[in-house]
Amino acid sequence: MSLLGLPSSSRNLLVVVSVSVASLVALGIVAFGGSSSSYGSRKRQSSKRRQSKKRRPHVYLRGLYNLGNTCFLNSTLQSLASVASFNIYVKNCVASLAENNNIVKYSVDANIAIQLNNVLDLLAPQPRRVAAHSPRALINSLGHKGRWIVSRNEQDAQELFQMLSSTLQTVFRQTETSLFDAGFLAKNTPVENRIITISRRTSCCPIAIVDQQNLSNPQEDVNPGNVVSQGPSSDNPLLGMAASRIACVKCGYTAAIRHFTFDNLSLAVPHVTNTTIEDCLAMYTAIDQLDDFKCRLCTLTVTLEQTQADILRHKSNLERVGSTPKKVKREEAVIFKLCNQQKLLQDALVNDPDTELEGVHMASLPPGISTKQTMIARTPKILMLHLSRSIYMANGVSAKNPASVRLQRLLDISPFTTTGHISTSASKPISGPSVPVNMYSSKSLAEVRRRNCLYRLCAVVIHSGAHDSGHFYAYRRVVELNTGDDYVDTEALLAETAQWFLVSDISSTEVSLDTVLNAGNGYLLFYERV
Ligand SMILES: [Zn+2]
């Protein structure tokens, strides 16, 4: 499978997998365990285990058959199976269908949710070796949704994730709508469909917020700069909210701070040999300069200046034509109209520059320079990061950005979030700066957790190979059997106690955490807030 969705031959696929695993073995960074360990490696592992305080039980993962270029689907499903809150979300979705007696439960979307739930159940860690599963039923259910999977050669892992996310939200919305729960409907407006505008005079606390989708409850996000876990996204663990601001460099005017929900963030990867996930997030939230901005405040100011110059000109005309009553009347009418216009412009400049001014012919200004910045305003329970690796050349040819991106097991995203104080200055960040956190101190971790900004890596979808060929596989974090919901205190977060597995279609192999963090070619990253 390619990053652009072009098909690859299964021969390519086998070569890529065997090469990547073989090279990891050669480097001595694959710790074989579970189903694939030889007698020798098992013996070495046993001695290591005796040294550790607690003996790890064998855990087995079920593989998924590749039904023809379906590695993008297999790797995404394996990853999602390791995200605890996603599994709960899908279960709740299916439960909402079971409680529902209307036609919704027979819809295409409902069938996808049910089939997804079945597969996720099968992908849970097992105490003994289990046969691989064919995801045929799920693929068939996807086939009924538009052109999905019918043309699966054109799909990729990120598109699949987005489709599953929107499907689950649709099912929730349909089941709740059938129960006439308007409140739930308001809370679950589809992704990208919610725009909250804030009055420009909001440097510290917003004066007016208009949620265009939910006018009946405009106070819902009265403090949009805060990173909070409650609110419209609390039911859907995938939904977060971002704040985006465009500001004029010349006059500092901020048109509006737009808020929009997201279920994943697509991050550009810098064109370098080595980089980090923090660098990619910093690029996403950096202040960009745009050169095509039509500033409303600058336009109003210039129009007011022109109006005032016109008034002076017509007043001197009036003195000149003082002896001609007809001309005097005409000049007085023009001056009266211009004075009204002057008042409208002055009011708009003081009170609300975005007010529509009827009958006022606005000055035409050339586009100016503005800054644009987007930051995370509300953190989601599940943070899915897509590393965009497509490079488009001037001649239209696309290629893959091979930059190696080092991951963090524990990720502090507070430097990339708004912190409750929204700045409207064009040259300053929307919010911040954040205090750097020592990720090895439980006290610092506790502070980041309190701000809802601490995430733990659960799974990674890897794309290996070139842009137009290659293979998708996944690294999964697997919690020991019978440990419940994997809840940990801040102290315990400092040490990784879970096992990591490389899962590629039907095969699974235990790997070290370092292998995962240094894999470099991550494509989708699944982080869960802790
Ligand atoms: Zn301006």
UniProtKB/TrEMBL annotation:
Coiled-coil region list: none
Record protein name field: Ubiquitin carboxyl-terminal hydrolase
Entry GO MF terms: cysteine-type deubiquitinase activity
Annotated Gene Ontology cellular component terms: cytosol; nucleus
InterPro entries, A to Z: Papain-like_cys_pep_sf (IPR038765), Peptidase_C19 (IPR050164), Peptidase_C19_UCH (IPR001394), USP (IPR028889), USP_CS (IPR018200)
Domain of life: Eukaryota
Disordered as annotated region, ranges: 36-55
The keyword Transport belongs to this UniProt entry's keyword annotation: no
